Amino acid sequence: MFDTMTLTKVVGGLCGTFLVFLLGGWAADLIYSGGGGHGDHAQAYVIEVEGGDQAQEVVEEVDFAEVMATASAADGEGEFRPCKACHSVEPGVNGAGPSLYGVVGRAVGSVDGFGYSGSLVAVAETWDAETLNHFLESPSGFAPGTAMNFSGVRKIEDRANLIAYLDSLDD
């Protein structure tokens, strides 16, 4: 039924089809994008749109103190789950990261027996809620060169809940 000649015709037909599509895409790019090398020219017809120049996205700044006032320690406990891989909340028990028991209000780099990276100690003095917020948003952005390999917590509400949970652990 199928012989070598029939198989050769089918493969040749498929290759020819792909070649036509390739050349058609190249020709369309040449026609529509001006890829012919004729230089930059102004458009022949421009449609004016009201507010077209103001297409910038407005980012609303949220006051962290307001978010922190409504934070939930119970929700923060759920946010702490990924942190358990490296940190502990028991006093004096360090893992790959230092113990986070009593971290809110504690001096940066003050856990005995844990070697901090120098860049972390250089950027802040105490772990207050505002400093923790910036650090948890992007650890490597807050303290470049830190040994902490964590991308950060994106939502400000999640960061506030996590800080409220950490603050609730100690007296």
Automatic annotation (TrEMBL):
InterPro entries attached to this UniProt entry: Cyt_c-like_dom (IPR009056), Cyt_c-like_dom_sf (IPR036909), Cyt_c_1A/1B (IPR002327)
Keywords for this protein: Electron transport, Heme, Iron, Metal-binding, Transport
Protein name, UniProt field: Cytochrome c
PANTHER family per UniProt: CYTOCHROME C
Domain (Cytochrome c) ranges: 71-170
GO molecular function: electron transfer activity; heme binding; metal ion binding
